[in-house]
Amino acid sequence: MKKLILLLFIPLVSFLGCASAFNLESTVNSKQWYPVELRPSQIKYNGDYFYTKKLYNDEYVAVYYDESITEDAEFYNNKLWESYGWTMGAETMTASAYASSPKSSTLHINVKSGVAVYLSPATKYSVFKVIRTTSPFSDSVD
Fold first, then answer.
1. pTM of the model
2. Tens-place pLDDT, residues 27-48
3. Which residue of 22, 34, 55, 113 lies most exposed, with the fewest beta carbons within 10 A?
4. Considering all CA atoms of the chain, what is the largest pairwise distance in Å, rounded to the nearest integer?
């Protein structure tokens, strides 16, 4: 009986371990996006950090608006959707039956690319810069 319980317990622990393995650190060297649910009122367009999270012992990730990245907004939004299995055409987006959609009211962060895409509930998107910093408390980026 103990062996049976152990056989059932080990796969469960392995599954839970894999599920929790995805975190912000995993996007540092990959094309993965880290989702963070935020209300539209939490998003700032004035250059201040509106989201910070500890990355390593002495390093943080900060997200802020920078107008210089808006020219590439559609490119980054397409990359986000492509990571969920969608293909972008000239006028339409298509997907297989297995594709999912990125969640609305969510900031999708990719540290490696240095960008974040926020999908608002009104089906609009905004693009933000992501930087690695040693201070999570800076009010704005110069």
1. 0.75
2. 777 788 999 999 999 999 999 9
3. 22
4. 64
